[in-house]
Design brief:
about 180 residues; about 5% helix; globular; eight-stranded antiparallel β-sheet; mainly beta
Length: about 180
């Protein structure tokens, strides 16, 4: 089961900024046998600094748990995936440079994105419970895409576009805490 809802208001600051709110619910199976339930809530603000430069930032709250049958052992799942339940708050920020000729039907150009995410466990200490999640990390990611039309004749473009993409990510944990 998968459900998502998004509310966006793209007309802030003379159409150069937008506010997005999203809610996602997922009920699925890990490794084909362990039922999981996950809820994501995201609030994002995007600001178009120039025609090709955009900055986005905002928090994302994630709740995750296994929905085990009474006859299933939790230790089986922990051996595979680590934690049984987590509440995590992520602060995300990214900057994008978009030099494509068309966002939806790109024929030529480039796109670059640099993102940073800080994640920390939330909820457990304030509720007087044991820590729910041990995940506390910083993530930095970078992406580059390029699009070039293939030319087989002088003065004309053949309708095939060569596209390339590269992506990299670094994740570092704080202290002796585990990584997702």
């Amino acid at each position: 089961v998968f459900a998502t809802g998004r509310l966006a208001y793209p007309r802030l600051l003379d159409h150069r900024a937008s506010l997005d709110i999203a809610l996602t619910y997922e009920l699925d199976y890990r490794a084909g046998q362990f039922p999981v339930e996950q809820v994501d809530t995201e609030v994002g603000f995007s600001w178009k600094i120039s025609d090709s430069l955009m900055w986005s930032f905002g928090p994302n709250w994630r709740w995750f748990t296994y929905r085990l049958d009474p006859d299933q052992e939790l230790s089986d799942t922990l051996g595979y995936f680590g934690e049984d339940t987590s509440r995590l708050l992520q602060w995300k920020s990214s900057i994008s440079l978009d030099w494509r000729d068309d966002v939806f039907r790109t024929r030529r150009g480039s796109y670059y994105n640099l993102g940073i995410t800080y994640a920390m466990p939330v909820g457990a200490a304030s509720l007087g419970q044991d820590p729910i999640s041990e995940w506390n990390y910083l993530s930095v990611s970078a992406e580059a895409r390029t699009y070039r039309p293939l030319r087989f004749q002088r003065g004309g473009d053949f309708p095939i576009i060569a596209a390339g993409r590269t992506y990299g990510q670094w994740i570092g944990s704080f202290g002796d805490r585990t990584l997702p």
